[in-house]
Design brief:
single chain, alpha+beta, D-Maltodextrin-Binding Protein, domain 2, Immunoglobulin-like, 4 domains, 6-stranded mixed sheet, 5-stranded mixed sheet, 13 helices, flat
């Protein structure tokens, strides 16, 4: 690769794809035709991805592949690939041209390659904080506080910024904060410092002396440096680790059952590095599409940091597989080796992603999988006997998408709890025993009165919370914001009620603001209003051949809809005319029948309404 024009960035949107894709069955495995030959291959690199690579190697070994992976660190993995001692590398950090710390060359030494998204996960912050012999497990930190901790500006756990992040509800000790970082060149360090350099550039520049990300954390006197992911989590979990907070891959914290801090996202929620929150976040990944650039296919996470879906973990990222792309590769030179690389990568992108969440990773979203599958073509280009026949999206058993054509299936990932919002919680404190329930009337008639019942309880003790204030806000259809409506006070049984008479579909928000012992809670109900239809005619009796006018009003109007005027016959309702309406409707026509007939005006349900509405009248034509 040579340097060329500037990068073009492509955004993966959180929308279903409409491109035509090959179809196939879910639950596919590595598809290997009997005639296809395989050979043992080896790879090295990222410790972040090691648990996933080891699992996939064991899985595919049972299907006839022989893959040996060495967790040597991203920098060593890139070097091994460049020196042609491995068939693939796995790295959290792309080739940088020159290592910013050692000054050594950091490139592929002329070996052609492509990047493939492979293992996704979150940069986690495991911590060890005890109060009265009890381990705190529900710590929350904003990005600004996180930056302050790792740049030395916040030195004690009871600092005002940390207390504020936790809504002043955690009993935090006056104990020194001890950040634990990687001493070696680490991909997780690179991802974390990329976040700091982008979101808090002044603080990071002042601390590190450089405005850019680095794989080598600039360790200060009050920080602890450990060699590798296992060493970081082991120190945090040790007896002398009280007061420590590390930066490490989530998989290591999960397997050690260590608590990790929830980090505030741009939507105003504190999120954990869970599979769903990482997968949703990574839909905002951008990547370089300039094939002449040395950064071709390199990810840019700036939109991930700022994504406003509440399910976003802002420090999400993925590791790359580096695969050979040359037609005359001197290491991975045989068709059997290339085929094994192709089949192993396909397994990792597809079926292997189903195993990501249980071991602390996150399955890749659809757009990243499509990008990865597209790069496998270089293996076929190197040797046309490499079979990619079933290595397509239709045969890809990845749990993040479904359908034909495939689309992202994010409904499986829940929205955060109310106690994860800024100003609420933290979740898991005694205050979160509060239960606010609101009866949902669902659908009512136009301007009909109905009562919405409210109850407030201490759920842990099943006792009523009487004398508490619940603020009610309302948002009618087509409104963009809630506005105050009423204030309720619960009785001794924790009950209150609101009487409404809605004229349009309306949302009601009930807010309990909490007190020193009980957390704030919010409940929302949507009230749908059935349409009311009136009908009038210009005459109830008229002569044959004379014109008849039918008119009336339909309320509420949620959107411009369709209305029919119909006559009842022995075969059912026969449509006489159809028109658009806007509150009022009007038909003029000449009846073709004689005698008495029942007419009705009928409005079909829309997405905003419940059921259908109609009005009837009898007309005699003589």
């Amino acid at each position: 690769m040579t340097r060329g024009a500037g990068p073009i960035l492509v955004l993966f949107a959180l929308i279903p794809l409409v491109t035509s894709l090959a179809s196939g069955g879910a639950g596919a495995s590595v598809v290997m035709a009997p005639a296809v030959m395989h050979a043992q291959i080896g790879g090295s690199g990222s410790s972040f991805a090691a648990n996933a690579l080891d699992q996939w190697a064991a899985d595919t070994n049972r299907q006839g592949l022989q893959v040996v992976y060495t967790s040597s660190g991203s920098a060593q993995g890139r070097l091994d690939f460049a020196r042609r001692t491995t068939d693939f590398a796995v790295t959290d950090t792309p080739y940088q041209g020159t290592d910013p710390v050692t000054g050594q060359e950091d490139d592929s030494e002329g070996r052609p390659y492509r990047y493939i998204p492979l293992v996704a996960g979150g940069v986690a912050f495991p911590y060890h904080l005890e109060v009265g012999g009890r381990l705190i497990r529900n710590l929350r930190l904003s990005g600004a506080t996180l930056s302050g901790i790792f740049t030395g500006r916040i030195r004690y756990w009871d600092a005002p910024a940390i207390r504020a992040d936790n809504n002043n509800r955690l009993a935090l000790p006056h104990l020194a904060v001890r950040p634990v970082v990687h001493i070696e060149g680490s991909g997780v360090t690179y991802q974390f410092t990329s976040y700091l350099a982008h979101e808090y550039p002044e603080e990071w520049n002042e601390f590190s002396g450089a405005p850019t990300a680095t794989a080598y954390f600039p360790v200060s006197d009050d920080q602890i440096a450990e060699p590798g992911s296992n060493a970081v989590i082991n120190y945090v979990e040790s007896n002398e680790g009280d007061g420590a907070i590390g930066v490490d891959e989530y998989t290591y914290a999960l397997l050690a059952n260590a608590p990790v801090a929830k980090i505030q996202n741009a939507a105003g929620y504190y999120a954990a590095p869970s599979a769903g929150d990482v997968t949703v976040a990574l839909t905002q990944t951008q990547f370089n599409t300039d094939e002449t650039s040395p950064d071709y296919l390199v990810a840019d996470y700036s939109r991930v940091y700022e994504f406003t879906d509440p399910r976003t973990y802002p420090l999400s990222g993925y590791t790359y597989a580096v695969i050979p792309a040359g037609q005359h590769d001197t290491k991975t030179s045989t068709a059997a080796q290339l085929q094994t690389v192709a089949d192993f990568m396909f397994y990792g992108l597809c079926q292997g992603q189903a195993e990501a969440a249980p071991i602390g990773y996150a399955p890749l979203p659809l757009a990243l999988v499509q990008q990865g599958l597209a790069q496998l073509q270089v293996l076929h280009d190197a040797d046309p006997t490499v079979d990619l026949g079933d290595d397509d999206i239709g045969h890809c058993a990845n749990p993040t998408f479904a359908g034909d054509p495939p689309h992202d299936a994010f409904d499986q990932y829940p929205q955060p709890a109310a106690c994860d919002a800024v100003g609420h919680g933290p979740c898991g404190t005694p205050a979160d025993r509060t239960a606010l329930t609101v009866a949902d009337p669902h659908a009512i008639g136009y301007r009909h009165r109905t009562r919405i019942a409210v109850r407030l309880l201490d759920a842990s003790a099943s006792t009523a919370l009487g004398g508490q204030v619940v603020v009610v806000r309302v948002r009618p259809a087509r409104a963009t914001a809630y506005h105050p409506l009423s204030t309720l006070r619960t009785d001794r049984a924790g009950r209150a009620s609101l009487t409404i008479r809605a004229a349009t579909n309306t949302r009601y928000q009930f807010d309990y603001r909490g007190d020193d012992e009980h957390a704030a809670h919010t409940a929302v109900v949507s009230v749908h209003v059935k349409q009311a239809v009136t009908i009038r005619t210009s005459a109830r009796r008229l002569r044959h051949g004379h014109r008849l006018t039918v008119r009336g009003v339909i309320k509420p109007l949620h959107r411009r809809g369709v209305v029919w005027v119909q006559r009842k016959t022995r075969h059912g309702w026969r449509t006489l005319a159809t028109a658009r309406y806007s509150h009022r409707y009007r038909f003029r026509f000449t009846p073709r029948w004689r005698g008495r007939a029942t007419l009705r005006v009928w409005s079909a349900a829309t997405a905003a309404n419940i059921g259908t509405s109609s009005a009837k009248v009898r007309v005699t034509v003589s």
